[in-house]
Design a protein that fits this description.
The chain is an alpha+beta fold and 116 residues long. Helices cover 19% and strands 28% of the residues. It has two helices and four strands, in the order βαββαβ. The model is unreliable at 88-99 and 104-111 (pLDDT under 50).
Protein backbone atom coordinates (compact mmCIF):
# COMPACT_ATOMS: atom_id res chain seq x y z
CA UNK A 1 0.00 0.00 0.00
CA UNK A 2 1.48 3.38 -1.03
CA UNK A 3 0.46 7.00 -0.59
CA UNK A 4 1.36 10.25 -2.37
CA UNK A 5 4.01 11.14 0.23
CA UNK A 6 6.30 8.32 -0.94
CA UNK A 7 5.61 6.14 2.08
CA UNK A 8 4.50 2.54 1.73
CA UNK A 9 3.31 -0.27 3.94
CA UNK A 10 4.47 -3.84 3.35
CA UNK A 11 3.95 -7.01 5.33
CA UNK A 12 6.34 -9.97 5.37
CA UNK A 13 6.43 -13.48 6.78
CA UNK A 14 9.92 -14.76 7.56
CA UNK A 15 10.44 -18.53 7.82
CA UNK A 16 13.38 -20.52 9.12
CA UNK A 17 15.08 -20.52 12.50
CA UNK A 18 13.76 -17.07 13.39
CA UNK A 19 12.25 -17.44 16.87
CA UNK A 20 14.34 -17.43 20.02
CA UNK A 21 17.32 -15.94 18.14
CA UNK A 22 16.72 -12.21 18.75
CA UNK A 23 15.10 -11.77 15.32
CA UNK A 24 12.24 -9.48 16.41
CA UNK A 25 14.43 -7.24 18.53
CA UNK A 26 17.05 -7.00 15.79
CA UNK A 27 14.28 -6.14 13.31
CA UNK A 28 13.14 -3.39 15.64
CA UNK A 29 16.65 -1.90 15.69
CA UNK A 30 16.93 -2.10 11.90
CA UNK A 31 13.52 -0.45 11.47
CA UNK A 32 14.15 2.33 13.96
CA UNK A 33 17.43 3.36 12.36
CA UNK A 34 15.56 3.67 9.04
CA UNK A 35 12.58 5.63 10.41
CA UNK A 36 10.14 2.74 9.89
CA UNK A 37 7.01 2.21 12.01
CA UNK A 38 5.23 -1.11 12.42
CA UNK A 39 5.79 -4.36 14.29
CA UNK A 40 7.53 -7.71 14.37
CA UNK A 41 5.80 -10.63 16.06
CA UNK A 42 6.17 -14.36 16.46
CA UNK A 43 3.52 -16.54 14.84
CA UNK A 44 2.40 -19.92 16.23
CA UNK A 45 3.97 -21.84 13.31
CA UNK A 46 7.49 -20.63 14.20
CA UNK A 47 7.69 -17.85 11.63
CA UNK A 48 7.88 -14.09 12.24
CA UNK A 49 5.52 -11.51 10.76
CA UNK A 50 6.76 -7.98 10.06
CA UNK A 51 4.59 -5.02 9.09
CA UNK A 52 6.62 -2.00 8.04
CA UNK A 53 5.51 1.52 7.12
CA UNK A 54 8.01 4.07 5.89
CA UNK A 55 9.87 5.55 2.95
CA UNK A 56 10.14 3.29 -0.10
CA UNK A 57 13.95 3.10 0.06
CA UNK A 58 13.92 2.38 3.80
CA UNK A 59 11.45 -0.48 3.34
CA UNK A 60 13.57 -1.95 0.53
CA UNK A 61 16.65 -1.78 2.79
CA UNK A 62 14.75 -3.51 5.60
CA UNK A 63 13.59 -6.22 3.19
CA UNK A 64 17.20 -6.88 2.13
CA UNK A 65 18.13 -7.22 5.82
CA UNK A 66 15.15 -9.53 6.53
CA UNK A 67 16.46 -11.94 3.89
CA UNK A 68 19.31 -12.90 6.24
CA UNK A 69 18.41 -11.37 9.64
CA UNK A 70 20.79 -11.39 12.60
CA UNK A 71 23.75 -13.80 12.65
CA UNK A 72 21.98 -16.09 15.11
CA UNK A 73 19.05 -16.65 12.71
CA UNK A 74 18.65 -18.83 9.64
CA UNK A 75 16.22 -17.36 7.11
CA UNK A 76 14.83 -19.90 4.66
CA UNK A 77 12.16 -17.75 3.03
CA UNK A 78 10.72 -14.23 3.07
CA UNK A 79 7.21 -13.97 1.63
CA UNK A 80 5.31 -10.77 1.05
CA UNK A 81 1.74 -10.81 2.36
CA UNK A 82 -1.22 -8.65 1.44
CA UNK A 83 -1.72 -5.49 3.48
CA UNK A 84 -5.29 -4.59 4.29
CA UNK A 85 -6.24 -0.89 4.34
CA UNK A 86 -5.37 0.58 7.73
CA UNK A 87 -7.19 3.83 8.57
CA UNK A 88 -4.79 6.49 9.80
CA UNK A 89 -1.62 4.57 8.96
CA UNK A 90 -0.10 7.60 7.27
CA UNK A 91 -0.35 9.70 10.41
CA UNK A 92 0.01 7.14 13.18
CA UNK A 93 3.52 6.23 14.31
CA UNK A 94 2.44 2.80 15.54
CA UNK A 95 0.38 0.28 13.59
CA UNK A 96 -1.56 -2.43 15.37
CA UNK A 97 -3.76 -4.27 12.88
CA UNK A 98 -6.16 -7.02 13.87
CA UNK A 99 -4.23 -10.28 14.28
CA UNK A 100 -4.57 -12.81 11.47
CA UNK A 101 -6.82 -15.80 12.17
CA UNK A 102 -5.03 -18.05 14.63
CA UNK A 103 -2.18 -15.57 15.23
CA UNK A 104 -1.31 -14.46 18.71
CA UNK A 105 -1.54 -10.75 19.51
CA UNK A 106 1.70 -8.77 19.65
CA UNK A 107 3.64 -10.37 22.46
CA UNK A 108 5.61 -7.52 23.94
CA UNK A 109 5.04 -3.76 23.61
CA UNK A 110 8.78 -3.12 23.36
CA UNK A 111 8.91 -5.25 20.21
CA UNK A 112 6.74 -2.77 18.29
CA UNK A 113 8.97 -0.30 16.51
CA UNK A 114 7.73 3.13 17.20
CA UNK A 115 9.42 6.08 15.59
CA UNK A 116 8.59 9.61 16.81
Amino acid sequence: MANPMGRITRRFRIEGNVQGVNFRHSTREQAQCRGIAGYARNLPDGSVEVLAHGAVQAIEELLRWLQHGPRSARVDRVAELAVEAQPGIESEPRVEPEPAAGAQPMLEPETAFQVR
